[in-house]
Amino acid sequence: MKADLPRPLRIPAWVPKPVAQAARAEYAREVHQTYARAIKEFGPPEDHADCDMLAELDEVRVNYAENVCDDLAEIAKDYQVVVSNPRMRSVWHELSRRHNGGFLHPARAPSTQDAATVELFERALACGLLHPARAPSTQEAALIEVFEVALECRKWHWTTTTRGEVERRRRRFLAKAEELEHDAISMMVHSLPCRGMDFGDESFEQKLELRQKLMHAADACKEYARMLDAAKPFTLKREHDSPARQLALTISDKFRELFGQPMYGLTATITSVVLGRPINSRQTEQWCASHPPVKAPKISS
Known about the structure:
Blueprint: H1 17-42, H2 54-84, H3 88-96, E1 98-99, E2 102-103, H4 115-126, H5 138-155, H6 163-189, H7 200-231, H8 243-259, H9 264-275, H10 281-289
Antiparallel strand pairs: 1-2
């Protein structure tokens, strides 16, 4: 059904082609994931052949669309802000400018780039948005990473939670996972304290089932700990830091990684686009100059 297909993402012609291809592939993936969650929760939309009345089919379609429309609107908004904002045109122009036969701001070697870039191009190939013989150049891959970090910053909900708090929570969940795994092992080793009663195979099967549940719970704790670790670059380093400052630091660190310089002007532009309010280059320079570079965040896939 048409409802199961992602709506096309409108991208202006001035967006670099590799960025546009990667954005469409990532957008399509998020839209498909949204529909998949809706289908899992509410069931798939009924087929026309299974409906006795066309009115019933229309009602199913309407209800199905209502279940995902808010999520789709939020996804579209995030992408449109980063992809279509006119101020991003100056960012792409600056990073694509050539000087004396090369780029004005040449990107570093591909070995410094995030593996998420390669994954994005694989998605573009899978969606038919990229020719198999077309491999991204170093500069193109860097442009995609700039887009990805801007999009991730846009989607992230900035709070007053500090990195120290996030780290403490991460350690707590890892400790809880270790405790659950220990309990799962001890459960199989120790016998049930029921004198004079032999539960036999039934008892063993029950313990196996309970052990599996504990291991699943331990895996969930570990997964959440990994999520917290990935979120640390997007949280405030200190409680009195502002979200704008931390966002600018994150973007500036990505520029340092990709191009070897903080690019305060471009950092200010992207920060302004993400937050939807003016941020000037002098502010970003003041924020970043006194802050040592940190490891750039890895983009979630």
